[in-house]
Design a protein that fits this description.
Largest sheet: 8 strands, mixed
Number of strands: 8
Number of domains: 1
Shape: globular
CATH topology: Glutaredoxin
Radius of gyration: 17 Å
Strand order of the largest sheet: 4-3-1-2-6-5-7-8
């Protein structure tokens, strides 16, 4: 069953043709490190949210994931209070920016933290959207809240996930976190990321996903083990 799940998740990565896999050259040499954590309100199965997460991975940006699966009653009302209940929604406390619309968010992120969005990047946007929609159709998991988790009170300390968007194994963990309505800190470690040595120093090897739960002093590799841990620890809401 795990093998089939892995292959199913891999299909979504293949459909994205490498997006979110490698840090852009400029960010490899001078990775952006904002003073305050960016916050992204989204849900895993949303194709427009995926486009933004891909760019976050390529820019080597860390951020706080505010999971907003369908059925959530804690964070979706906050987003709705900003004008519309539409995802993704980005909050950047470093500049005071709050943005809906995936393309507006991508342009903002690349202009602010990546040296500026190219004309080609803007022209290729429709193809990017089509690919992301195809990935969501192929792998629709991670969009709906698990019964009993709709109004979850978050743990005292945020969980942390070393991850990169294109990894099919990381996707399985992100889906579980979203369905359980858990917020967490994302440390992106795509290929060529400057954060990769940090992960090796902490966990002992360069392998993703890697979960840190400071609430239980748990740190672990392996997607299936992580999903099983999350189910045991947080499935009760």
């Amino acid at each position: 069953m795990s093998f089939l799940e892995d292959q199913h998740s891999l299909a979504a990565s293949v459909l994205r043709v490498g997006r979110g896999l490698v840090v852009l050259p400029r960010q490899q040499k001078n990775p952006p490190r904002p003073e305050k954590w960016l916050e992204l309100y989204d849900h895993e199965g949303c194709p427009f949210c995926r486009k933004v997460r891909d760019v976050m991975s390529e820019l080597d940006l860390a951020y706080i994931e505010r999971s907003c699966p369908k059925g959530d009653t804690t964070k979706r009302p906050f987003v709705a209070s900003k004008g519309q209940e539409m995802f993704p929604f980005l909050v950047d406390p470093n500049t005071g920016k709050e943005l809906h619309e995936s393309e507006d968010i991508i342009t903002y992120l690349v202009d602010t933290y990546g040296g500026g969005r190219s004309r080609f990047g803007k022209l290729a946007s429709p193809l990017n959207t089509v690919s992301s929609v195809a990935a969501s159709v192929a792998r629709p998991k991670g969009s709906r809240c698990r019964p009993g988790c709709e109004n979850r009170e978050q743990p005292a300390e945020l969980l942390e996930l070393y991850n990169f968007e294109a990894s099919p194994y990381c996707r399985k963990v992100r889906e579980a976190l979203c369905e359980l309505n858990l917020d967490y800190k994302v440390h992106n470690v795509a290929k060529k990321s400057a954060r990769r040595p940090e992960l090796v120093a902490r966990g002992g090897k360069m392998l993703v996903p890697y979960l840190i739960d400071p609430n239980t002093s748990t740190e672990m590799y392996e997607s299936d083990d992580i999903v099983a841990y999350l189910e045991r620890t947080y499935a009760g809401g």
